Task: structure prediction
Amino acid sequence: MSLASSLTRLVSQLHRRHITSHTEATPAFLPTLVATMDFLPLGILTGLIVVSTAVGLIWRARQGAVTSGGEADISPALLAPGHWLTLVQVSAPLCSYCSAMRGILQRASEKHGGVAHVEFDVSEIPTVIEKFAVRQTPTTFLVEADGRVVHQIGGPIAPPALDALITQAREDVRKRSDEYEI
Amino acid sequence: MNTKSKQLDPRGPRFGAAITTVLFAAILLLGIPAATEPAFDAAWWLLVAATVLFGWGSILGPSGHPYAWLYRVSLKKLLGAPSFMEDEAPPRFAQTVGFAISLLGVLLHLFAVPWGLVIASAMAFVAAFLNAVFGLCLGCELYSLLLRARRR
Result:
């Protein structure tokens, strides 16, 4: 109790010294600021909510963004052999949605025939990270057996959207093999 | 990843972030009118409490936290089982970032720096709001940014 009260006294002395030193150097705009104080708390809080809502909306719009049809490819050595499509997931140790994405990709690979799921840590595949400029985790690549990257997904994606991408990729593969037969 | 760490219901930390959002909104509303003259008022004590709660989550982990207990006895029963589990490490790191920011506010206030408490609380408020409303864990993003900067 005595310790707490002496500490409080010490700190209040510190305060007084600082406050006096501050009032000496008070800028001219401060009185007007004090006059508008009543609106300030709610105004600042509203401003913070508006700014963070904007940031959140932009972030959310970028989640699950799909980049398609690049020229670059991934070394087939990283893929699961014997599958026409491999879902290559890039994860990181402190990644909130990586385990959610793991579940989504595993279920998709079970649902669609000939599709496999492999997962790498960002540190394991530095060349892929550099080549595709991976800036977030999870990032997922839909890769055909020859290493061609069909789609790149930044962030988590909803299962129906993923299903659509896989179905589309299968159509494309079938179309191409038909062309060869002709 | 092969190292299997403790798994959490991801809605738990988000529920905690909602409480933190309300707490920091209260700190800002109470603290802004007195921002130029730091005193040991209600805003200060609430910030101290928030700092202790962040410290608890950071050092002992989110699962034993009072907010996690509140979540288990309230929302969890309504929501049922989660569709996926989350690694404990990201929310724990976010708690550490929250702890550092609110501790900065506490120290600035102790040294009677005008607006110190408000600026630190505003940063914590934005982070907690984004986590609660959008599920965006700023602390986790910050960590991956740091990792990337160090590699360069």
User: Anything to note?
Assistant: The CA atoms of residues 51 and 100 of chain B lie 8 Å apart. The mean pLDDT of chain B is 86.
